[in-house]
């Protein structure tokens, strides 16, 4: 299972679902009550973000370039739990996929707010195998479990 923004050679995609990027903030942050935000809205707030090379960061950088926006992150990490903790303890904003945080929103006092910039909707969550590979019954059952969880994350609660 991985996040993808482009097709890959010799890969068979078994399941694919859009995985747009959200702004993650504390539940008392001014953005928390909004229906959506834009990247331009984020400019007024401290930004905590993933390292380059992560799909969220790649799409963020592309979107900023297209919009002519420049951000100076106050915190950069490759560990998403650290980004979430930083947001929980400050007024900062980070970017996330909803599936990544959905079960932690209420317990951690966080809110995930949709971002309207279309480039941030180009990511998909995929279950992939090597092209030409035959899956064992055990792996097929696991793929079915993953597929069910992707379509209904509450199955794993």
UniProtKB/TrEMBL annotation:
Residues 17-147 form the LysR substrate-binding domain. GO terms for biological process: regulation of DNA-templated transcription. One of its GO terms (cellular component) is cytosol. InterPro entries: HTH-type_LysR_regulators, LysR_subst-bd. Gene3D superfamilies: 3.40.190.290. Pfam families: LysR_substrate. PANTHER family: HTH-TYPE TRANSCRIPTIONAL REGULATOR YBHD, NITROGEN ASSIMILATION TRANSCRIPTIONAL ACTIVATOR-RELATED. This is LysR substrate-binding domain-containing protein. It comes from Paraburkholderia humisilvae.
């Amino acid at each position: 299972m991985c996040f993808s923004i482009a097709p890959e050679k010799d890969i068979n995609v078994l399941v694919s679902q859009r995985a747009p990027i959200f702004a993650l903030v504390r539940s008392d942050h001014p953005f928390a009550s909004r229906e959506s935000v834009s990247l331009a809205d984020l400019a007024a707030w401290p930004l905590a973000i993933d390292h380059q090379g992560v799909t969220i960061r790649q799409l963020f950088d592309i979107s900023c370039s297209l919009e002519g926006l420049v951000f100076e992150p106050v915190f950069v990490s490759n560990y998403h739990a650290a980004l979430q903790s930083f947001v929980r303890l400050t007024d900062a904003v980070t970017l996330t996929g909803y599936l990544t945080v959905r079960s932690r929103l209420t317990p951690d006092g966080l809110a995930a707010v949709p971002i309207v910039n279309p480039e941030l909707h180009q990511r998909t969550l995929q279950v992939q195998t090597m092209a030409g590979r035959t899956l064992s019954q055990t792996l097929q059952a696991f793929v079915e479990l993953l597929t069910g969880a992707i379509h209904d994350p509450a199955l794993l609660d």
